[in-house]
Design goal:
- Helix content is about 0%, strand content about 50%.
- With about 170 residues, it is an all-beta fold.
- Strand 7 (about 100-105) and strand 8 (about 110-115) form a beta hairpin.
- The chain starts with 14 loop residues before the first strand and ends in an 8-residue tail after the last strand.
């Protein structure tokens, strides 16, 4: 075997990745820990009870307690600064003792539950069009009692491209 010409070429040793990340919190007082716990929220319809609660909480010292006796009793908040066509991720934790609850964001139903006795996360992603609301309300006409905590609404971002950074296993 006779080799008379060797050519060494650099190779593309970069990695392609797509990363989904979330922007800053866009909701107001989603944990109900503000000095005035209902700041940023408004009642929908006429809940029998809509008040701060300190006995059934997921995180912190407060949650919001609601008792509804009609379909759609609940609370909502307007979310400012959303941009048409962009995606947003929303989540809320609810603790139900009776009835059923649903989460609607930007006019889209993201989930509902009738699970009682434990904190349940309702969540999902929507593409913003024009209805800028984050709504947690009674689902169905059966009377409902529930607690709300840890509401969040963030823009979804995606980064995609090539990198030559090594994977960093330990920070």
């Amino acid at each position: 075997l006779d080799i008379d010409n060797i050519l060494i070429q650099p190779i593309n040793d970069k990695n392609h990745a797509t990363t989904v990340f979330y922007g800053d919190e866009m909701g107001v007082n989603g944990d109900f820990e503000h000095a005035t716990p209902f700041t940023g929220w408004t009642n929908i319809e006429t809940p029998t009870t809509s008040e701060v609660n300190t006995s059934t909480v997921r995180n912190g010292t407060n949650s919001w307690k609601l008792i509804g006796d009609a379909e759609n009793d609940g609370i909502y908040q307007n979310i400012a600064d959303q941009v048409a066509g962009r995606q947003y991720y929303s989540e809320v934790y609810v603790y139900i003792t009776a009835g059923a609850v649903k989460l609607d964001v930007n006019g889209v139903a993201l989930g509902n539950t009738a699970t009682t006795g434990s904190w349940v996360k309702l969540s999902g992603t929507t593409t913003f069009a024009s209805n800028a609301t984050f709504t947690i309300r009674q689902h169905g006409s059966t009377a409902a009692t529930w607690f709300v905590d840890d509401c969040s609404h963030k823009e979804v971002g995606v980064a995609s491209g090539w990198t030559d950074a090594d994977q960093q296993l330990h920070i």
